[in-house]
From TrEMBL, chain A:
Species, as recorded: Neobacillus vireti LMG 21834
GO biological process: cytochrome complex assembly; protein-heme linkage
A single MF term (Gene Ontology): heme binding
Domain of life: Bacteria
Name recorded for this polypeptide: Cytochrome c-type biogenesis protein CcmE
GO CC terms, sorted: plasma membrane
Lineage, top ranks: Bacteria, Bacillati, Bacillota, Bacilli, Bacillales
From TrEMBL, chain B:
Subcellular location: Cell inner membrane
Listed GO CC annotations: plasma membrane
Protein name: Cytochrome c assembly protein
Organism: Neobacillus vireti LMG 21834
Gene Ontology MF terms in the entry: heme binding; heme transmembrane transporter activity
Gene Ontology BP annotations: cytochrome complex assembly
Amino acid sequence: MKKNTIVMLGGFIIAGAIVFLLMAATPGSSGVELTMKELLATQDQHKDDFVTVEGLLIEDSIKWNPDKIELKFDVKNNEGQIMHVIHNGPKPDNFSEGVITILQGSPTKKDTFEAESVKTRCPSKYEGKDIKDYDPETHKDKLNQPPKEK
Amino acid sequence: MFLFANATIYIGLAIAIYSLLIITLGISTKNQKFINSGKGGLIALFVCAALAMLSLFYLLATSQFQYEYVHDYTSSELPIIYKLTALWAGNAGSLLLWTFFLTLYMVMIVFSRKMKGNPMVPYISAILLANAVFFFFILGFVAKPFLLLDTVPIEGKGLNPMLQNPGMIIHPVTLYLGYVGLAIPFAFAMAALILKNVDDFWIKATRRWTIIAWLFLSLGNIFGGQWAYVELGWGGYWAWDPVENASFMPWLTATAFLHSVMIQERKNMLKIWNISLIIVSYALTLFGTFLVRSGVLTSVHAFANSNLGLYFLIFMAVAVILALYVLMSRYNMLKRSAGEFQSFVSKESSFLVNNLLLVGAAFAVFWGTIFPLVSEAVRGTKVTVGLPFFNKVEAPILLSMMFVMAVCPMLAWQRSTVKNLKKNFTIPAILAVLGMILMVKLGIQKAWAVIGYGVIILLLITHYLEFYRGVKARRKMTKETPFVALYRLMIRNRRRYGGYIVHLGIAFITMGIIGSQNYDLETMKTVDLGQSIEIKDYRLNYERLDQKREGINDIVYADITVFKNGKKLGSFQPEKVFYGNWEQPSSEVAIISSLKEDLYIVLSAWEDDGRATFVVKVNPMMNWLWFGSFMIVIGALFAVWNGKYGNVTPRYTGVRREVS
């Protein structure tokens, strides 16, 4: 066998190992990204999954318990559905009405989402626009994606 | 001013198109006059871009809020430095900056002394001009920097306070310089292929460009991480966010490229691989821009969604298809002239392994980044892969890369014999294993950390031996003192020793990453005034909560006295800043930094009765990261520095044409 072929073979082994690594790591550390509507409809199925979901914050619902370091709040989507969220951690910096929250965690109880991480996304964080001017309609398409074909 | 500023853009577009056409015409009719006209166009283009930049700087500095861009990103009370650097706070300005660098690089190359009379010049110009046409088109029709508002507002919206940080002044500039820089070797490679030159002239001619682009790309990533660490208050520096991945992927492939071109220079091998690598690196810079600007992925970075990303995707697709076409049509020529591997264990094969690992790492990042899109297209649900995925996949790949890096200097070119291997590796390997045993004894027991640090010990020893042997050999002949010998050795072989310094820098960064990822501590606690929080051997006394006013901003801060092992370290003030012209407050963390670890204090929340909630973290070895970054800069600069030695201008031996 030519040396080049041997080296090529070695190369393929490394490439194969990397692909294997990818395959092995994907299921264990992946989660699903759902819209709120989908999540509320299929909550039971996703009990043990790591779910990413986005919702608009309802400011009046924020309850902050400093001693237990427990943050409770509700998020809604554009169809008025409401989901309760529990998060063991402090409030993100811009936690105000209508801000888009990106929640990661799992829906443990009925209509309640236990979030391991709460991130907020100012609709245009780096684009210099006022949140006050933010119109929830702008991201309607993002929050309300119709479920794709099953 | 409005007319003038816009004129620079549209005239620029016209000139770019004209130059591109006239140079193409000149190439096909072999008419030097046309080519020269196109070259003149390059200068005019550079002047246009420079004037556009100056206009925007002027408008920003004088706060002319009738311009949309000025209004959106600045306000009158902003310090002048941030008014100016707001130029790259938004899309239009960033692209203008990019265009400016592109035209600057073009002029530098086409009119450089080394390229005089070189028939590649028209081709290189044409390829880069195609890029310029694209950017001027975007500036002229998609992201216009000089838009007027209907009314003249009295005050601007201000610059996002998170961007008001020295790191953010430099970070975008360095990244763009890196991105643009990769277009240069790409253009050279394409020009060489079109001219059917299969030698390594294009590699030698662009070596400096590539290293500089690589350096800027590294700096861009490092400054980004550093900014995130001090400014965002989550205590980390890298989150595998799509936006970060977008700039990490070209860095990985460019690193691979830097190494594999050495094999081509020495052994005439891997030609197709090298060209593919530079095409991929170049494409990834455009793909990254597409990812960042199009909003197809859920990212906290969230630049405004616009169709800008789509244009980049289309441009990238066209560029890649054309490049692949050129590569394929020259495939046989390249193949015929390629060298062969002599042995399994040699420097060449270790370079190849390093390349595969780097490209593999890039592919893994790519996979994880686009996985949500792929899965949505295939299965209908967006499956996300997060931090754990990347850590799981990248850690072994990058660790094996460190291993290759550790053994590579000790391997011989062509072939390493068993005897040679034994002689070179016995001592370093024993020392590394001893080091690992010592670590376990001392209480470092996490497998990753022990293996990682073991590999790094090996790396440090082999690199030390490289320097040591070089100096010894030199002193035998010249009888110089060790330091003089070391200095002369290094400046006579800049690329090699500069590369080693970069390796050492990477080793320090890796040590920092391993330490801070495996041994970080975090606690979150609500305490009354006068109470304290304990973490590791630190005690934090919460003394006072107060408010102060700075300019138009209100600042709430806590006074914290920090003790370590009972010894007072001083008073520190984590703050939360409420901005006069910005909706969201931001946390200013207090960081107490030492060689061993950082103590990272965030003031998260407070109640009316004075209780406050703090997040306190201990991040080990953060300073090693920054120190390693510093060494990378030193090493890269050392490698490209214009020294007295080994500075031969590569001689062009390729195809001759009538025009140049």
